[in-house]
Amino acid sequence: MKRAVLVVLGSCWLAGAARAAETPAERGKRVVYEAVQALGGDAFLHMADRVESGRAYSFYRQQISGLSVAKIYTRYLAPVPGAAAVSERQAFGAKEDNWVLLTPNGAWDVTYRGARPLDDQTYARYKETTLRNVLYILRQRLSEPGLAFYSQGTDLFEFHPVEIVDITDSREVTVTVYFDQRSKLPVHQTSRRRNEQFKDFDTEVTNYGLYRDVGHGVKWPFNIRRERNGEKIFEMFSDDVQINKDLTDDLFTLAGNVKILPKAK
What we know:
Elements: H1 2-20, H2 24-39, H3 42-45, E1 49-60, E2 63-76, E3 86-92, E4 98-103, E5 106-111, E6 114-117, H4 120-132, H5 134-141, E7 148-157, E8 160-168, E9 174-180, E10 186-195, E11 200-213, E12 219-228, E13 231-243
Antiparallel strand pairs: 1-2, 1-13, 2-3, 3-4, 4-5, 5-6, 7-8, 8-9, 9-10, 10-11, 11-12, 12-13
């Protein structure tokens, strides 16, 4: 028994020593790839599409400015460096009669009146937000040329020990991600983005919580909250998330008879 205990202690010491010898880049990469495994490994990396159903809240100056039953359809496309390779349909209301279509080739706000192209600033913000989303990075961007990881060490986030990793792409855009030390899952991310209107920087934060198994061993957060400059701007509480539903093209294209309205200003 004593010998077995000594073997276990020795193995733990060797593992700890090996990790202590890691460079910040090696540690950052290890933490990121452990997160991929925690999210479902190969099943997560080959997730073709996803449907999230629940309640979505938008905020203005910390007050609720809109709330709705929401259903978000997402389909992953072949990764393209620097591009948001995903199509998304955000449907609102019990009848899903109002929806926003977001694709690599354009974006529209669709109502009974017709389809109004989103203004350029909103569309650009959506694409950049997608590129900075850690779950998108882990699913779509890990093999992207120039992507680098750098460990900032450990800390506490909401009383839980976390590993902190900077993920930087070839454009020198950095997203700082907190990974829960026990579950290995991403729970918090932050990044800075230039505000062209005021010529300064916005700090954007996303928190991920209440991870659940959504099939095939894949885990997905059922609570997602976004903030900008310390103010809450969006929150989604999912009641149900399903993956690999063989979503069809018609969900992500405009019907030929839809009236195209002037672009939003």
